[in-house]
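Bumping with the actual sequence this time:
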Amino acid sequence: MADKPSEGFEYVQDPHIEARKSKVTKVTGITDEKPKTLNEKIGLGITKRVGTMWAAYLFFALTLVSLPSVLMKGDPVQIVAWIAQTFLQLVLLPIIIVGQNIQASSAEKRAILTYEDAAAVLEEAIKIQKHLDHQDKYLEHLVDRLEKLEATKPNSK
């Protein structure tokens, strides 16, 4: 009889699977990492404080201090400059940081879900492979029995 169905095929597990089992994998965001240097600590501290809506409110109040003198001069160029250089820069900066923090948090949640989905798919693929191995063994058993039956059957020519 021809080759058995399982001959020529041997399952070889991807090396990533064992590497994944041997490591503790954690998806971390930038905010979860500890700053190492003094400059990183200062930068992270300032970013956390400026990136709040309270900072935006404070900066808005700060911009109002210079608004009366600009309006009293009545110079359109100075008014536009005040809007662009004072109001927009000071007020929008913390608001943009708040928005970016929200987006980063959402992206991190999606990344964690994607990782968990991939891990689940990997585990399912391993189970499918084990099931296929079991089926291969049973098919080999059936082929062996069929070959034995054919061998005991008298030639009918």
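The tokens above came from a reply further down the thread. The chain has four helices and no strands.
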